[in-house]
């Protein structure tokens, strides 16, 4: 049987550097600002509500990407979970994670930048105890439509890949089924954020650990390209002078 060819879309070294940078910017549970880390703060709130609704019992839990501690803190303090915390800088998501040891595994905003996503999902399933629960959240294919148009305008007649390819709901559902998850569900919700400048939008993405980790880094925008980007941003301004940007958050849930 021929080996499965895995395309190299993302750089592991750049993922690690991004995770470390985000960790340093976000700080700890005591220091992190939910307003600045709004995607992870909202994801943590959503997951806690799901666990409470399911009356999910305390168990050993593995959290990936919860560096501000919005999820791990309440799981430990208020719900009695034993939590192991990690990120792309400490765990290689494309390799096995050992024997089935975790009753709960949660991945926040990391799985959309692994090269071998089917393999990563399978490794997470295998790391769950029998009847263990896996939850992942990350930005989906409906995200950043304004920025995509702005970047296209900035590059002009010589486009470059600057924004990550993203996964839609049917694709995510198929991957969960392929990995062998039982009773898997993929749902999504959208979040609209208003920005007064392009620089603020870009800074927001970097502050939340959503900067580019493409293996083939595109060339920097020229001065003319940056001017075209700002002009394209200005054409999107609404009556109050701000531009609306959309984040689609996919939620993948499955059981072993």
Note down, in words, how this protein is organized.
This protein has one domain: Rossmann fold (3-Layer(aba) Sandwich), CATH 3.40.50.150. Helix 5 packs across helix 8. Helix 3 links the parallel strand 1 and strand 2. 36% of the residues lie in helices and 22% in strands. It is globular and about 55 Å long. The model has no long low-confidence stretch (mean pLDDT 93). A 6-stranded mixed sheet has the order 2-1-3-4-6-5, sandwiched between helices. By secondary structure, it is α/β, with parallel strands linked by helices. The protein is built from 8 helices and 6 strands.
Give a quick precis of the structure.
By secondary structure, the chain is an alpha/beta fold. The chain has helices at residues 12-26, 38-54, 72-77, 117-126, 145-155, 169-178, 198-207, 223-235; strands at 60-64, 82-86, 102-108, 128-139, 182-195, 243-255. The protein has eight helices and six strands.
Domain unit count: 1
CATH architecture grouping: 3-Layer(aba) Sandwich
What is the share of helical residues? 25-40%
| Beta content | 15-25%
CATH topology: Rossmann fold
Largest sheet: 6 strands, mixed
Number of contiguous helices: 8
Strand segment count: 6
Radius of gyration, rounded? 19 Å
Mean pLDDT: 93
How are the secondary structure elements laid out?
Elements: H1 12-26, H2 38-54, E1 60-64, H3 72-77, E2 82-86, E3 102-108, H4 117-126, E4 128-139, H5 145-155, H6 169-178, E5 182-195, H7 198-207, H8 223-235, E6 243-255
Helix pairs in contact: 5-8
